[in-house]
Amino acid sequence: MADDRGTPLTQSGLSQRIGLTTGATSSLLNRLEVAGHIVRLRDSADRRVVTLRATAGVSELVDHYFNPLTARMNEVMDQYAPGTLAAFERFITEIKGVMEAYTTASPGAPAGGR
Length: 114
Hints:
Elements: E1 9-10, H1 11-18, H2 22-34, E2 38-42, E3 50-54, H3 58-77, H4 82-105
Antiparallel strand pairs: 1-3, 2-3
Helix pairs in contact: 1-2
């Protein structure tokens, strides 16, 4: 979470990170707020800026949900030699870089390619 890194997250920032429109992100945040998972706080220096904060207990909910998945992924990864995993990590990192460079340089590129 952004809070974990000491960086407050805004609705606009979240929208960009998860690839939703601002309207869809607003609807998502409304539901999370009603469920008690987040709060929206105004910045003390600039009251126009609203940041998002997780409420108490959210980390435990996230851990409860993802810890079993993490354990299963670790079981699979344990079957591979460290060198194989390192090569795969390099591959994924390079592919991610290519994709990010493409989408940054070509924001209007069609989804299906040219």
